[in-house]
Amino acid sequence: MMRTRLTALLLACGLLSACGDGGVGETRAWMKQVERQTVPKVKPLPEPKTFEPFAYDAREALDPFDQAKLLGEAARVAQAGNANQPDLDRPKELLENFPLDTMRMVGTIEKGGVKYALLQIERNLHRVRSGQRIGQNYGRITRIGEGAIEIRESVQDATGDWVERMAHIELQHRAAAK
Description:
Helix content: 25-40%
Shape: flat
């Protein structure tokens, strides 16, 4: 008997709570008012540019595909040399035999006013300083910071020209090493 009364009371409360709109009517009225008052602002499109055709007169112009001109330009570039080309005849240092992605920076030390970085390669620990050669792409250490080593590498691009690119080795924290 008690359960029937409780069930009837809960059912009556549920039906009465469904009678109200829960404030949704006020929200919808406000949204309609804001929609009526809002005026969209659209910037006008810029005027299109007029096309001016270019007349190419092949009789008076130089042939852009002239072999003599192309060979002359290639010879001029070869004579000038490339400032980014490394010295390929010098003997390589020990750390130039390892790719940069196999090296881990594990710390820095300072001795005699010179800052050194500690690099771990496989199980060996190496001390490096600015100016030292490193990596397989003719890299040179340019700066040693508390959190990273900056390296300038010389690599050949698709046309065979030597270009410089920057690389870095970041400090590995103990938690990341585990």
